[in-house]
Amino acid sequence: MRAVGRWLGERWITIGSPLTVLVLWEWASATGLLRAVFFPRPSTIAGHLRDLAMDGTLWGHAATTLVRIGWSFSLAAILGVAIGLAMGLWRRLREGLDPVFAVIYPIPSVLFLPLVSFLVPPGEIALVVTTAVTSFFLIAFTTTHGVRQIDRLVVEAARHYGARGWRLFAAVLLPGALPFIFTGLRLGLGFALIVVVAVEIVSASRGLGALLWLSWQVLKVEDMYATFFVIALLGALLSYGLAALRARLLPWVPDAGDR
Description:
The structure is a single chain. The chain is mainly alpha-helical and 259 residues long. It has a single domain (57-258), classed as Orthogonal Bundle (MetI-like fold). It is built from eleven helices and no strands. It starts with a helix and ends in a 10-residue tail after the last helix.
């Protein structure tokens, strides 16, 4: 109990701020300050969320979205880390890819869906590849920066003591870049959720994005807000989960929020 109390004491702002928003929303909707037809009470939304969970609708759409996020994030992470490391190590490769990245990265990922559908079979594969685009660039950028920020004196000292090739990479370069790689992974995972919901709204009949869009089209406002809540909760769990994994694997690196 003491440990729980200490944990709550350290994070009372993190926990209290969303609760305050919900309480104010409940009050504003109940008093008519907000129109209940468009902004129903959170307590009412909670009831609809329970109904969606009980009849299985919510779980089916959430599972579809999670599978898509898993595949797209895995694709983005593998390619992003590999290419980011290569760009950090080899200047010529970095100089060649930087202009390409600068042109493609600002384009919203969902706009790539028609083009991707020309290159791969339309359907789930095209959706996963489209979702992975933005996450790939974020992971590649941060990984490249992670390699480049390593002190050259450390690298030269390692070479002086005989570290070459794979030994230099495994003992110096990769550990030095890991904090930045995890930052890129956390950003990439968050954007994977954002983009997959957007793509589901545009082109899917299953998934949280599709459920959100359908609820809006038929004016099931409570179901729409319930889906919003699930998407927000899912984003928080994914982000904080990856942050917890980073803290466990890299305990010597302070988190940005601790400074």
